[in-house]
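Input (structure):
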């Protein structure tokens, strides 16, 4: 995985959350919004503390692909609380409208001084969802996120082009399920390094090309990625799919709606988590013999 030292960072005024047509326009023009103030640094630290306490309780429980913590909003009350944050949802509403489902979420945790990375890719290439403009990903920093610890990298406006071909590598160091790598040419000087303070968020389009290099720092890099969709979106690959209504109403019924967990790591929550992981992997690994 190449490591970049270019200095094009998100050194711009932070965005205040609101329901705003201007935010929606900016998002679809550029393919992203950042940085957006969602939580205070103290609140972000409290969430990190709760996450790390719950990690000690997981034991041998399978929480996702490649040892990732997928769908934590189905397992942990605090992760579900973040998905319902009104500031977060105001920005999402500006992008996809007033009716909002959570389709997926993942804690992306890069341990210090490790080789884990994310290759250049487009999310919508592998999710099986049929409307690329009906989805938005939010990425919330639970500690300082910088180039030193492997912040995300965006290639602005690449969501405006066609979906590019991807090559499956199944690299163990790659966070992505299939180790997929986009096949395209680009200028490294165009990379935008998504540096965030604790509690800040970035938002990106499902077709925006993005990546992140390894963590070369002495602390973990912890981000919570949440995928929001509008209820009209459909799953076109997996035989069944799930979501959670967090604002507005669902007039379409394209997804089986799940309830918030009543406590952490309950038997029902673990059963729901396993069902969702199994069905969504039909889309994630479609066309391969790996699961």
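Output (sequence):
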């Amino acid at each position: 995985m190449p490591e970049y030292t270019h200095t094009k960072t998100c050194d711009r005024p932070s965005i205040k959350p609101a329901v705003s047509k201007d935010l929606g326009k900016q998002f679809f023009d550029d393919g992203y919004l950042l940085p957006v103030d969602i939580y205070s640094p103290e609140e972000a630290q409290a969430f990190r503390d709760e996450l790390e306490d719950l990690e000690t309780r997981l034991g041998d429980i399978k929480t996702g692909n490649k040892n990732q913590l997928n769908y934590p909003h189905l397992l942990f009350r605090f992760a579900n609380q973040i998905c319902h944050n009104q500031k977060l949802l105001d920005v999402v509403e500006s992008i996809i409208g007033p009716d909002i489902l959570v389709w997926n979420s993942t804690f992306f945790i890069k341990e210090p001084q490790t080789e884990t990375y994310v290759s250049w890719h487009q999310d919508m290439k592998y999710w099986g969802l049929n409307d690329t403009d009906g989805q938005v990903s939010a990425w919330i920093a639970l500690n300082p996120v910088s180039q030193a610890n492997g912040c995300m990298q965006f290639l602005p406006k690449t969501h405006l082009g066609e979906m590019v071909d991807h090559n499956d590598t199944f690299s163990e160091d790659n966070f992505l399920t299939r180790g997929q790598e986009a096949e395209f040419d680009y200028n490294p000087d165009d990379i935008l390094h998504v540096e965030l303070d604790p509690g800040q968020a970035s938002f990106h389009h499902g077709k925006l090309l993005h990546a992140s290099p390894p963590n070369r720092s002495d602390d973990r890099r912890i981000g919570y990625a949440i995928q929001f969709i509008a209820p009209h979106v459909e799953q076109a690959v997996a035989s069944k799919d799930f979501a959670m209504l967090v604002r507005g109403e669902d007039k379409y019924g394209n997804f089986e709606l799940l309830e918030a967990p009543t406590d952490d790591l309950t038997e029902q929550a673990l059963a729901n988590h396993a069902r969702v992981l199994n069905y969504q992997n039909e889309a994630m690994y479609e066309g391969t013999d790996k699961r």
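Notes: The chain is about 20% helix and 25% strand. The two ends are 24 Å apart (CA to CA).
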